[in-house]
Each structure stands twice: as C-alpha cells, then as structure tokens.
Design a protein that fits this description.
Elements (H helix, E strand, L loop, with lengths): L1 E2 L5 E6 L3 H16 L3 E3 L7 E6 L4 H15 L11 E5 H6 L2 H5 L5 E4 L6 H8 L11 E2 L9 E5 L1 E2 L10 H5 L3 E2 L2 H13 L4 E5 L16 H11 L4 E4 L9 H9 L6 E3 L7 H6 L6 H14 L4 E8 L6 H13 L4 E6 L17 H24 L5 E9 L5 E5 L10 E3 L7 E10 L2 E4 L1
Parallel strand pairs: 2-3, 2-4, 4-5, 5-6, 8-11, 11-12, 13-14, 14-15, 18-20
Antiparallel strand pairs: 1-7, 9-10, 16-17, 16-19, 17-18, 19-20
Helix pairs in contact: 1-5, 8-9, 12-13
Length: 435
C-alpha cells in the first residue's frame, strides 16, 4: 500500500502462476519507490499494468480477454487510463503485438520489467523523479501469512512442448543474499510461511562460479528463520537428491512436501518430450523419498494426449496413477504451442481425445488422492491459520497442503499467523475439517 493521494495511481493486474505474482510485486515496488501510488482497483488508476501469462494457448487467450476488458474502462470524464502489457506475452510474441494490440500503450517483456517506473512515467507524460514521492510501506504480499520467494528465472531444459525458455531465457540462479533479503522483508511483514519457487528450483546454485545447491539454500534459510515454515515447489526428478531429502528430513520448519513434475511415465513419450526417466525410475524415486521421509507429501503433474501417445501408453499412465504412492496429481491436456518442437511432431492427437484422456486421468487421480486425504482423519497436524472466508469460516493449511492447489483445513479457532495443533475430524474431497 502507498501513502500520499497526490501521487499518480497505478494498478497491477496479474494473470498466471505464482511466479508472475512475484514479478508483479517487484514491478509494483519499483514503481512505488519512484513515486507512484499502487491501487487495487483498475477504475481508480491513471495507468494499468497487465502482467500476462502465455505459457499455453489457453493462458494467452485469458490474457487477451483481460486486456480487452480493461481497455473498455472509462473514467467519469470519458478518459481511459493507458494500458501497459507486461510479462510473458510481450516476451513470447515480441514486436508483432504492437500491430495486433492497438489497445496497449506500451509493452514490457520479462527482461525489461525492472524498467517499469521509467515506462510508466513515459506513457503518462511525467518525468522522474516525481515531484511528490510516495512512501513504499508494503506490497500486496507483505503482511500476508504465506508468501512466495522466487529463487531463479529461466530454464535450460528445452522440453519439446514448453515455451518457457523462449519467454524467460536461460536459467539463472538468484544470489543467496538477494533471496535472504527478500525473505527477511516478508517475514518482518508477517509471513510465517515462505514458498520457494522457480521454473526449476532443483537447479538452484549450479550455475554459480562456485556451485551451490538447493539443499544448502533450504538449510541456510531454515536455520536463519527458525520460526518460519519453508516449502519448495517444482523440483524436477533429477533435482531430488539424497542431500535434498536429508535436508528436508533434518529441519522441522521445512515442510515435508515435494512437488516433482513427471509429465509422463512412458520412455518413448518422455524422450519425445526431451525429458528423461521411465515408469520404473519414477516408482523407485517415490519409494526412495518415502523411505527417507515416511511422512512426506508428494505431488506431481502429468500431461495427457502428447503427440504419439497410444491407447496403451495412456493406459500405462493411468495404471501408474492408480498404483503410485502419490498424494496429489495435477493433470493437463497437451497444448500444441507454436514454435515448439512438439508442435511439428507427427501423430498429433485430436483435441476431443486429449480432453477426454485428461478428464479420465483426473477422475482416477481424484479417486486415489481423495482417499489418501481421508486417511488423515484422526491424525494430528500443525496448521498455519491463514484467515477467514467471506462467510466468516476460519481456515488454514497444514504442511501437507501447498498454496492454491491442495485444499485447506477448516478451523474452529485461531488467529491468522498462528500455528495451531489440531486433530483432523473429517474430509471432503481435498478439504479437511479440524477440531
């Protein structure tokens, strides 16, 4: 939030994943430090920044719909605030957006987001520094009980279906001092849980002149902020080292939770995806993790309908989900993305078949995973109280639940920011009720 109503007002609208939320927060902070006032409502703004997602076609379409909706906003005097399109869409589509989106006053690709204050001043006809400087007190995430910290950007994997390397560039780890400083800012503002995210968290530190590791980073943060929960997301299978597993097991304030995207289990499909692994390797990986951390929670994501996926391939994928010792499974239908190598592969699968397979796999995953959630009835758990829903219902999350994807725990007492010990009394699909 920004004090000083005399400052030019800017609204940031964010689409896509948590990584985009972190990027929007950083842009808002830079704008605020330059003298702009950050507001939550587009109708109150003198300029609007839309941080877009363009990872798959559906995300691009959602971003375009939001841009068109925002472009229709008018003030009472008939003026429209200039619209700045930032993030993945400008990074992916480049100069062609200028002719395709006349609604936008300017475009800011991911690589230029640090220049957001200068660009806002330009579109508003202002000069920096502004005459009246706003005071940056706290961003939208500050004061939140749970917050994301981005530890790297970009990706070097070049999976054949993925646009991220073309949007975000090559992999680059952020230095520990930067991560520690951001974590301290959020903890000082009230965060009790820090979720470490990136496109490929398991590679953190491998690109330094003196290589480091995600294990070292987690251990250092957990010891530096002993009263804070830490959770790590998006660790590729190769990144789940014995060192990382042991670090998670050794620290009570590191959530025993791993999100490991597998994408498929058939050797030939994985090779066509430019990925490694096999069903046997993944089953051994799951077993290895559970042997060392018996109470661990495991999540994965899978893609249904990749080019060349036969009925037998899909049935093997379904069998894996039915038998794998996993707690949560996210499923996506393959999206044929322009510019990727997979888009040029033969044996593309009809959209109707892809969607049908994805739904079948989701149904299997729901059956298996909700049964695992139900097994928690009668168990005790530490729950971080997050807040209240619109109807006043108190809720929080246990260590076995990641933000936005795994459901919540409904509570009868507690205050936001507290850790409370509860007994799980009942479950409904992925939600849990505690007493």
């Amino acid at each position: 939030m920004i004090r000083d109503s005399g400052s030019p007002r800017v609204c940031f609208v964010t689409l896509g994943c948590a990584k985009n939320e972190v990027d929007s927060d950083r842009m808002a902070q830079r704008a605020a430090e330059a003298g702009f006032r950050i507001v939550d409502e587009p109708r109150e703004a003198e300029a609007i920044v839309v941080n877009t997602c363009s990872f798959i076609e559906a995300a691009t379409e959602e971003s375009l719909e939001m841009i068109f909706d925002l472009a229709e906003i008018e003030f009472s005097d008939g003026k429209r605030p200039p619209l700045v399109v930032a993030g993945c869409m400008p990074a992916r589509y480049g100069d062609e957006l200028e002719s395709e989106l006349p609604e936008a006053a300017a475009f800011v690709p991911c690589s230029k987001e640090d220049d957001i204050a200068e660009l806002l001043a330009e579109v508003l006809g202002l000069e920096l520094p502004l005459a009246e400087l706003a005071v940056y007190e706290a961003d939208e995430r500050s004061g939140a009980v749970s917050a994301y910290v981005k530890i790297s950007d970009g990706c070097d994997r070049f999976c054949s279906y993925c646009t991220i390397p073309f949007i975000r560039g090559r992999y680059r780890s952020f230095p520990y001092d930067q991560i520690e400083r951001e974590t301290k800012r959020l903890v000082d503002s009230g965060a009790r849980e820090i979720v470490l995210i990136a496109q490929d968290t398991g590679r953190w530190g491998s690109d330094f002149d003196e290589p480091s590791s995600l294990s070292w980073l987690l251990a250092s943060l957990a010891e530096r902020f002993a009263d804070t929960w830490f959770r790590v997301m998006y660790v590729q299978p190769e990144g789940v080292t014995d060192e990382l597993i042991d670090t998670i097991a050794a620290h009570d304030n590191i959530c025993s939770y791993l999100d490991v995207p597998l994408q498929h289990v058939k050797h030939d499909i994985l090779r066509a995806m430019s990925r490694t692994g096999s069903r046997e390797e993944f089953e051994e990986l799951v077993s290895r993790i559970r042997r060392r951390i018996p109470a661990v929670t495991l999540r994965t994501t899978l893609i249904a309908g990749f080019p060349g996926e036969t009925e037998d391939d899909f049935e093997d994928l379904c069998d894996f989900v039915e038998g794998a010792d996993l707690d949560y499974v996210g499923v996506f239908a393959y999206s044929r993305e322009e510019g990727t190598r997979a888009a040029a592969l033969e044996n593309q699968i009809d959209d109707e078949v892809k969607l049908e397979r994805a739904q079948t796999l989701r149904d299997i995953a729901d059956t298996v995973c909700t049964a695992r959630v139900a097994e928690r009835i009668g168990q005790t758990a530490s729950v971080l109280v997050l807040g209240r829903e619109e109807d006043g219902q108190l809720y929080g999350r246990a260590a076995c639940q990641a933000p936005d994807v795994d459901g919540v725990v409904y509570l009868s007492e507690g205050e936001p920011g507290q850790f409370v010990t509860v007994t799980i009394a009942d479950t409904l699909l992925y939600e849990m009720e505690a007493e």
